[in-house]
Structures are given as structure tokens and as C-alpha cells.
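Predicting holo structure, S-adenosylmethionine bound.
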Amino acid sequence: MDPGNGEGGSEIFRAQTHLYKHIFNYISSMSLKCAVELGIPDEVHKHGQPITLPQLISSLQISPTKTSYMNRLMRMLVHSGFFSTTKVVNNTTQEEEEAYVLTSSSRLLLKEEPNCLTPFVLSMISPAFLTPWHCLGDWFRGSELNAFEKAHGMNFWDYGEQNPEFSKLFGLGMASDSQMGNLVIKDCKPIFEGLGSLVDVGGGTGSFSRIISEEFPSIKCTVLDLPHVVANLPETQNLKFIGGDMFQSIPPADAFLFKLMFHAFGDEDCVKILKKCREGIAAKEGKVIIIDIVIDEKKDEHESKETKLFFDMLMMIVVTGKERTQKEWERLFLEAGFSHYKITPLFGLRSLIEVFP
Ligand SMILES: C[S@@+](CC[C@H](N)C(=O)[O-])C[C@H]1O[C@@H](n2cnc3c(N)ncnc32)[C@H](O)[C@@H]1O
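Done. C-alpha cells:
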């Protein structure tokens, strides 16, 4: 093998770089988490104009012994696309200095924004989610349901019930993801119009249903989720909560909403739940509305595809689910006795699927 002078060598070193990049990919996630914990996006935003490193440091509550490290964290975050840099003139020295500005991604981390995904960052990059990855190889050789169970000794839903702090963190994370529904629900009039009632199955703390109930006051919305998830949540005239198990019973309604639910469950469970919904559809024009990922091997662009694959792996490690192609979704619908469906790619990574009896 060429040690590095010829074509063969440079190919090997390219391969080494590729390998090392993937070995250290977690550093990108952890740097992002650190930025959120320190509140860097909010400080950059509060400054109202590009912020220099000394200005940023003085606005953050960091130990004086750590200030010299901040440029390295920021360099990483700029490289990852969470901030960009521009030049500003220093009022005292009249010299040009580098200063940081937000990007569209870090704007999604601002606490004051309605679409703040900070809780999603903190919940998904939490020890409960990360520990199972160390067990993946052992899980493949063992008999546990998934790597989460291997790591924590119980399934994901039981873990949430027994760890209220984690349950709260996860609930806030999912609610922040759902909150982005406010960007699209008003454009979904034809999908929700005419419905008298809707059950949001596994609707968490009701973030998505709350948006629907406000946009369509004539729809009676009910969120069904596990009892510890929906206990003591504020109800409104047309938004109620029911604590229960969807495998036991789902109240009848004109429509059933499943946001990021089916991807957390295996095919057999999905068909079971879909059959229950088909039997429970109260109106003639009733339907199931699904908001979930649809993998499109041909059309998905690189970043979208990679993110969908991350979600697919996450569903394998944490629960019993998977991300599905259109064909795989169709198989579930037909097996549960539905006659047709319509996919609208509305939500970035997610699509809206209407399934009709
Ligand atoms: C991935 S979260 C989705 C939450 C919400 N739909 C959203 O997108 O924000 C899955 C939800 O399913 C709920 N869940 C899990 N098993 C359930 C069951 N057997 N019956 C009812 N809800 C369940 C969980 O408590 C959790 O809130």
C-alpha cells in the first residue's frame, strides 16, 4: 500500500478524514447543546447588531477562567451554520473586527420566538436519549426490545412514567416541535373544515391540538395520551384531555390525528390502532390525519434524507418504530381496511397524510 505520496495514499488519507469526521460528529450536537445552555443565540439577538467576541463574553455568565475558550466554541458553531460572521468597526480603535450574527437555524433557538426549538434540543440531546447508543452493538446480539431498554432496563414509555423530570423535558421538547404547526395550520383549511370533532391520539401536552382548536373553534378537540402526560393540563371550551391507553380505547370522532405517533410504533401496532380508528370514525366524511415522515429515496435531498435516516435510527433505538416510504405507509392503510389516502408534503421533514375509509 502506498504510504501517502501517490494516488493510493491520498485516497487513504481522505478516507481517514471521512472516518474521523464521523467519529467526532457528536461534537457538533454537543456544541449546539452548549450554545443553548449558555443562551448564546438569545445574547446575540439581544445585542441588536453584530456582536463581537468580547461583547458576547461579557454578556454571558461564564467563568473568567473560560473566556479564552469561547472563540473556539464560536468557530465550531459558525462552521456548523448556527452563526455567521461579519465585519464591524471598533468605535475606539477604528479597526475592523469580526462579529457574530444569527442564521435562520439559530433564530429557531430564540426563547422569545413562537417557534423556539430550544426545548427540543435539550430533550433530544439528553443523557436518557444518548446512553442507549452505547448499547447498540450489544442490543443486536441480545434479546431486549431496543437499545433504550438495554440501557435503562425498561421501555421508553415506562421510563417516562417513572422519571417525571424526563417526562417533562420530553413533553416540552415535543410541544416545541408541535408549536411549529402554527406556520401551516391556517393553510390547511380544506383538511380540517367540516369536522365536528377530532381526537389527537398521543397528542402529548396538546400543543398541536391547541393550535387547531384556536384556528377552528367549531371543532371539539380531545387529546388522548397516557395519564401522567395529560394530568392537570388547562382545558378550554373546545380542547379537552383524556388520560388513557390508545391500545385499550379511543373515543369516537370525525377525525383522528396522529402527529409523530405511528413512526414510534411497529407495523402490527399501527394496523391495530388504525383499525380501531376506522371503526370509530363518526362522520361520513371522517378520516385519519397523520403528520409524519415519508421517506422518498428519489426526491429527498441530502440533508433531508440524512435527517430522516437519523429519525429512523432513533425510532429503532428508543422505541419500536421506523420511518416509512409511501409504499410502506400504503400497506398499513390497506391492511387496516382504509380505501384511499392523500399525501401533502407540508411540514419540511414531515408530510400530512389523510387516510379515508
Ligand atoms: C413522539 S410523542 C408525540 C407527541 C405529539 N403527538 C407531538 O407530536 O408533539 C408520542 C406520544 O405518544 C404517547 N403515547 C405512547 N404510548 C401511548 C399509548 N399507549 N396511549 C396513548 N398515548 C401514548 C406518549 O406519551 C407521547 O406523548
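The CA atoms of residues 184 and 347 lie 7 Å apart.
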